[in-house]
Structure prediction request, 515 residues.
Amino acid sequence: VSTQSTWASCKLGIDQRYPSELNDKALTVIVFGASGDLAKKKTFPALFELYCQGLLPQHTTIVGYARSQMTHDHFLEQISARFGPEKECSRKDQFLKLCHYVSGQYNEEASFTNLASELKRLEGHSKGPEANRVFYFALPPSVFTPVAKMIRAVVMSDSGFNRMIVEKPFGKDLASAQALASELGALFTEKQIYRIDHYLGKEMVQNLLSMRFANKVFSNLWSHENISNVQITFKEPFGTDGRGGYFDQFGIIRDIIQNHLLQILTLVAMEKPKTLSADAIRDEKVQVLRCVRKIDLAECVLGQYTKAADGTGEGYLDDPTVPAGSTTPTFATMVLRIDNDRWQGVPFIMKAGKALDMRKTEVRIQFKNEILPFKEDAYRNELVLRVQPEEAVYLKLMTKLPGLNSLSKLVQTELDLAYGTRYKDLDLPDAYEGLIYDVLCGEQGNFVRSDELVEAWKIFTPLLHRIESDKQPPIPYAFGSRGPKQADELARRVGYTRQGNYQWQAPHTPISPLI
Prediction:
């Protein structure tokens, strides 16, 4: 095994690069919406990184498809603009030789017949007539079904696997999600559909399973008997940046909470799966979702950002692409409650917002008070999984103040696993890299199953319809603030207690690598 492939395996935490049988046939990755932002910012850079790590099969071809008319050279220039500058130019040039562009319509059979002919030509040059195909839908949902129908009718491989990567949003409510699932389900099997939520590709989100079920220390602690509340938080320090017209169709609940944060909740709250198979894990996630109580609007705080107090930072309604007078929330805090034996009475506080004071995604599990003998001097323990930035796991706990005659004096500190210092020279893969790699390997555990999607929409659809019918103006909050103060008040009301002034600081001095 080459040094490059060995490092690639270590980097992604895998034992082999990919199933060896993938080299027996050509592999073609077709990216629909290839001229759009998602493809240029995420899809093609992820494919390039996989190539640089030796994680694409030997006979790989990448084809971009979009309505835009552009030359081959312009296409290559567009997709390579966000490749890492530290990569060798030779690697970049070699990768771009694998890439091709086809222009066509999304609902026109002649366009897809042309695409099918081009795929056969390219695959014949690469390996031979037999080929596996991956179809990446970097598309708006309005064209999912037309494209899927054309793929089914004209472009499917008849000599290898066919796998569809579908990006969110998966509908806007329960009815639209069920309709989309039905339309795709009539064309492809569940084993062929990979609904991508890129948070499921993030290192710390995937680490939740390992943390919970590979450490006996957590087994008896992980329930309402010891846990007071769970906070799952997403914060961005920027607004819509001219894309408010698109965001306004969805709002912060659909954009972040109903998918990304809810997926994290299922991993925090699920029961132990019998195996690590995709269906065993997703079965337990579905069971948790079925136990989530209807969300009470009285336990929700909705906000919309305005200019900062000093006049800086554009307000949401100042974005010319946002409809005048829009009541779409850019911030939401809400309480989810799980009615089962493990979590009865534990509030899950979900918080997401744009134009806040920092960039952060984290899970904060706050334990109940320890009463005697230190009474109120013993602050609550907190287990925090920091998803981004600066991935870390730390446990806030109380220790004796160092020194003489200080037995009764406590100080708050932490046990800390900061990835940047513990794993020297670690280069964590981007979420899209790991998820595309999973698709190549046929691993569906980090993708959303259709019944999981339906249960998620059952939780949020009544709340969303109520908010949209009431059209209650959201609470204004200043750009760069923590959000509406009512959100902090809600968290305190349902049980969260902020104690002490201690704050975790990310270490910046790497230590020696693991032995």
Notes: The longest strand covers residues 227-235.
